[in-house]
Amino acid sequence: FFFFLFPPYSSWDAAYERELQTFEDIGDAGEIWFGEESMARIIRWLEKHRVPLDSSVLDIGTGNGVLLVELAKSGYVNLTGIDYSPSAIQLSEKIREKEGMSNIKLKVEDFLAPSAELSGFDICIDKGTFDAVSLNPDDAAGKRQQYVRSLGRVLKPQGFFLITSCNWTKEELLNEFREGFEILEELPTPKFCFGGRTGNSVTALVFQRK
């Protein structure tokens, strides 16, 4: 299985401070985790299943907020992005303003300790945040359990959770989210071949909250 060099959850703020400075200097929005195809994959699934455009969507660990911009361009109107890094939210705010997407809501929030108002979402999306949480050097297993508990609090019953991961297989993710969630679909992702074996560089799954 393929592993990215993924920074742990606790070290992202410095990375986004650098990306914020780069955006201010040259207007570069920075890294799109898992590439543009990962965003297109999410939007295709939402459109295929006719998810209403006014559904409330939460981007967990929004980073530069580019996924929310693409969702807004696709017609979605009830969009919220959170990140524990103030620099990430500053960056996403600047990109939101540049793109003229004033309806996107952005908040500094630690998903492992969400505020009471962060609740009732129809859709939650994660591209790499659970991976980063998993690499936390301080009680990674406990942090993963807290993530699942937080997800259960913010996502409505019968709501959808779309996760893209580079560090976990489908079977491992099924085990991590076995409490309170059921798998709906595995989304196709790029394959690679190494040493005569074929695998996926990333895993993309859709869960539904029970």
UniProtKB/TrEMBL annotation:
Record key words, sorted: Cytoplasm, Methyltransferase, Nucleus, S-adenosyl-L-methionine, Transferase
Gene (UniProt): Eef1akmt2
InterPro entries: Efm4/METTL10 (IPR026635), Methyltranfer_dom (IPR025714), SAM-dependent_MTases_sf (IPR029063)
GO molecular function, one term: protein-lysine N-methyltransferase activity
Domain of life: Eukaryota
Reactions listed under catalytic activity: L-lysyl-[protein] + 3 S-adenosyl-L-methionine = N(6),N(6),N(6)-trimethyl-L-lysyl-[protein] + 3 S-adenosyl-L-homocysteine + 3 H(+)
Every Methyltransferase domain range: 56-185
GO cellular component: cytoplasm
GO biological process, one term: methylation
CDD domains per UniProt: AdoMet_MTases
Pfam families: Methyltransf_31
HAMAP family: Methyltr_EFM4 (MF_03188)
Protein name: EFMT2 methyltransferase
